Amino acid sequence: MSHRIAAKITGVAGYLPPKVMTNADFEKIVDTSDEWIRTRTGIRERHVVEKGMASSHLATEAAKALLAQTKTDPEEIDLIVLASVTPDMFFPATACLVQCRIGAKRAWGFDLSAACSGFAYALTVGAQFVGAGTHKKVMVIGSDTMTSILDYRDRATCVLFGDGAGAVLLEPANGPNEGILDFEHDVDGSGGEFLYMPGGGSLHPSTKETVEKRMHYVHQEGSQVFKYAVRRMAELSVHLLERNGFKKEDLSLFVPHQANLRIIRATEERLGIDGSKVMVNIDKYGNTTAGTIPLGLRDAVAQGRLRKGDLVLIVTVGAGYTTGGVLLRWAY
Ligand code: UT7
Q: From the CB of residue 204, how many other CB atoms can be counted at a distance below 10 Å?
């Protein structure tokens, strides 16, 4: 069964805040080493916001770059779907802040929460509106300011993440072989206990106690998430390729979520695909949650690794657990 959607990506852009934190910077904060971080995660450095900059600001910069690149008037945008687990506020939605700042006067929009799978889910949701014929230009954004929810006393999580945003423009595809060919998403809520932020929601509203208990930070059982991610990313990739009649050799580019280089390499090995076809930029950005996939696409375009007609597979696993995969033909 294929879930063909007649929508294609017609542009991709991103934004990373200028400030960079290296592994050596972490050596001064927690008991860690550049060597541990590099060998266990593949990360060398990550971009981080200055005080006062939030996910809406990162998203707005990415959106503006996307409008410029695609020569799109902001008033042409019909819908903004923004994925984030670090919205500026619970409400209004960060999509509304971006809509106002870029002058997308005709657009409606909303936020979507699916952690590291957020962008893949948002891409699929946005594409449905284009495919249905009701929307012509949909902006899909993944933006996270993970440093706002990191515990800089927990060496097992604080070294992993960075801040950043990426955005794509979706428009109607011209034919059956262009744009998004298929997707597969699933959720396994039994994994919720392994990666979460307990405080600040309706279960544990913010109090002095929730702050003292450090409940407003990312909590993760890394090895559990690691094993699940490797297994599901590989399984889902094989399934998506097979049901569309493709072999691994048909893939031009594999764009995995960037959580850990070892997860990426293990998935690559299970799939048996050539490392040269795998997008990796975790060394420079760390895990930017909803930002990793669009930033991966952006970097691939900049490096001349994506051409019209290329078969691209996006795959991700995140908190939830959420798993997402999108198979597409690059359209420009
Ligand atoms: O994007 C959302 C999904 N998230 C992920 O996909 C993350 C998945 N998990 C991972 O990437 C890895 O599990 C981590 C990078 C988080 C951890 O790597 P690991 O190889 O699974 O290490 P571990 O948790 O089994 O810990 C091994 C040791 C422990 O020390 P002991 O107990 O063996 O003495 C940790 O305390 O490494 C220690 N450790 C560190 N040591 C130096 C953990 N973090 C650090 C650190 N520096 N930053």
A: 15
- Find the 3 Cα to ligand 1 centroid distance in Å: 37
Residues with a catalytic annotation lie at 116, 257, 287
Whether the per-residue pLDDT at 295 is higher than 80: the answer is: yes
Pocket test residue of 223, 261, 267, 292 for ligand 1, highest count of atoms within 8 A of CB: 223
pLDDT in tens, 5-21: 789 999 999 999 999 99
CA angle 103, 105, 109 (to 5 degrees): 100
Residues 264, 256 contacting (CB under 8 angstroms): yes
Tokens found for residue 20? 């960079």
**Distance of CA 222 from the midpoint of ligand 1 (Å):** 6
- Centre of ligand 1 to C-alpha 135, Å, is 43
- Tell which atom from ligand 1 comes closest to the C-alpha of 41: 15
Query: Residue 77 and residue 11: Cα distance in Å, rounded?
Result: 13
Placement of tokens 């390499």 in the chain: 265
Q: Can you give the pTM of this predicted structure?
A: 0.97
Domains of the chain: 7-172 (3.40.47.10), 179-329 (3.40.47.10)
- Closest Cα to atom 3, ligand 1: which residue? 318
User: Is the confidence at residue 2, as pLDDT, over 80?
Assistant: no
